[in-house]
Specification:
With 272 residues, the chain is α/β, with parallel strands linked by helices. The protein has one domain: Divalent-metal-dependent TIM barrel enzymes (TIM Barrel), CATH 3.20.20.150. It is built from eight helices and ten strands. An eight-stranded parallel barrel has the order 1-2-3-4-5-8-9-10, surrounded by seven helices. The protein has a two-stranded antiparallel sheet with strand order 6-7.
Length: 272
């Protein structure tokens, strides 16, 4: 049938960051209630996010798998687990192994982490080879203030020209950077292993809007993934910090529905 659609191959997961200031327990309960396929655990000051046993118990209780772990490599998590960046990465890999996740998401080094930055490309490749865990390095953006632009990341905020085997593409970050998300995905090809689904308007602020509420080509991006048979995870990572519980539930329901709709691809479009 020419009008038939296929069931999406990609999992749609909920980032625990999407329920902040609520913690991991709330994220797992929300993911189950709304029908998400899994959870991405953002490791930060929530003690549960740092404990493999607690995370595994939540996963079993709610019947929701942990699909990925986000290492505490954000500016706000510089003291979580350790101030040593490789310790953070290694503990994130251990956490992923213990809870059955296949992917660790990490940000590139900050410019002032010069020793870490010098070792980063080789260190990522070595750890992937030794552990079998995908280390999917995330696209970031230049920092802007007072009409000036600062390059805050080394070896760079754009992963496309760098020799990572696995990349996370975040559509809020493409908005802030002024990047073309569709072109980035095309240039990454099979190296695109993981997606953070959000939206933005192109302001200097990393907005993490519900997909469809900004200027990013979220629908076209997901439909392109579907036609290419993308089988990684699409993780909803949106900001709900200022919302009531009811508003948060509505936003996360809308984001999931958006992802499901646009990941359903017509076979006539060339789905493999």
């Amino acid at each position: 049938m020419s009008g038939a659609v296929s069931v999406p191959g990609a999992n749609v997961a909920l980032s625990t960051a999407s329920v902040y200031p609520e913690g991991c327990a709330s994220a797992f309960a929300t993911a189950r209630r709304l029908g998400y396929d899994g959870v991405e655990v953002m490791v930060w000051t929530d003690p549960v996010s740092q404990e493999p046993g607690a995370i595994a118990a939540l996963s079993e209780l709610h019947g929701i798998p942990v699909l990925s772990v986000h290492a505490p490599t954000l500016l706000l998590t510089q003291r979580v687990w350790s101030t040593d960046p490789w310790t953070k990465v290694d503990k994130s890999i251990e956490l992923a192994q213990e809870v059955g996740a296949s992917t660790v998401v990490l940000h590139p080094p900050f410019r002032w982490q010069r020793d870490y930055a010098r070792e980063f490309l080789d260190g990522v490749a070595l750890r992937e080879d030794e552990t079998g865990i995908r280390l999917a390095v995330e696209n970031m953006f230049p920092w802007r203030a007072r009409n000036r632009e600062y390059q805050a990341y080394l070896p760079g905020w754009d992963p496309v020209p760098l020799p990572y085997d696995n990349v996370t593409l975040d559509l809020s970050h493409t908005a802030t950077a002024g990047s073309d998300a569709l072109q980035m995905a095309a240039e990454l090809g099979p190296r695109l292993a993981h997606v953070h689904l959000a939206d933005g308007t192109g302001s200097a602020k990393d907005e993490h809007l519900v997909p469809g509420r900004g200027t990013q080509p979220c629908a076209d991006f997901l439909e392109t993934l579907a036609t290419q048979g993308f089988s990684g995870s699409v993780v909803v990572e949106v900001g709900t910090r200022k919302l009531t519980d009811a508003q948060r539930e509505l936003d996360l329901t809308e984001a999931l529905a958006f992802a499901r709709l646009h990941l359903a691809a017509a076979p006539s479009m060339g789905l493999r």
